[in-house]
């Protein structure tokens, strides 16, 4: 009997859904209070281009910044007429990671804002990067790695990628640190990336179980707060080490996303369809113009005319006969049935729209 019971138990475990595969770490579900990036922005100049820079007549701001830089270097260019083609004005962007210290390096992205054809081979000269508060937090400089190329001749041109945008790995040096005392936090808040009451409750339960205390509290569908003093942790950083790798099973809203341009359909596993009848057919209208030219006989009076000739056809395909979809049917089962009938992806999108309009599709329907 023991052997038979063991075999039955193993069989049930094999048939059971792998719930552990759906578990996700808390650090992948939430944003921790104060642990965030800060966007940086700057306006600079790229030099050393091979004749692919801005046309200064069409981009006067390039000439202005170039004049300012040369004057700061002690070169007086007032009243001079110079029209170089190897410079380009650019916008420089970067993300300042959390806890970045002075002297650390961050990646930057460089994008042309004038009529430059390519930034390939250019060098970004010293560009200050400002945050939303107007303060300078980093300075960028370095050689640009462009992501494309352009070849042109007298009669044609070919562009591959985006040659007017590039990157500088570790191209900015942090000069100012973000004023944030993370170690002084008394309460840490976890902001869910996808707010949901069930997921927030599961995060609260997982943290309290791991700490052995009721330190976590679900405030709403998108926030879980933790009283750091109650946890007994030495610091907020030590607390994050204990909770960020805890795993929970998130609960998400049922969603169907369709892309009409490519005919792509993406669905969630929780989508359900109520009892509904579905029928679909195609109507094709074909018009063919074959004009005929009529000419007079040789040496006869008259003129050449074009006689229109039109062939119009109206064809209706058999399509799908009226079929009943029982209640509780998952969307994956409906898609499998439509695929078996040979329904095209775009026709499938129209059917899903009609089911949603009838109130039988219980999910968020997003059309892109």
Automatic annotation (TrEMBL):
The keyword Cell cycle does not apply. Pfam families: FlgI. InterPro entries: Flag_FlgI. It is found in: Bacterial flagellum basal body. It comes from the Bacteria. Residues 1-21 form the signal peptide. Keywords: Bacterial flagellum, Cell projection, Cilium, Flagellum, Periplasm, Signal. The keyword Signal applies. PANTHER family: FLAGELLAR P-RING PERIPLASMIC PROTEIN FLGI, FLAGELLAR P-RING PROTEIN. Assembles around the rod to form the L-ring and probably protects the motor/basal body from shearing forces during rotation. This is Flagellar P-ring protein. It comes from Mesobacterium hydrothermale. The lineage of its organism: Bacteria, Pseudomonadati, Pseudomonadota, Alphaproteobacteria, Rhodobacterales. The gene is flgI.
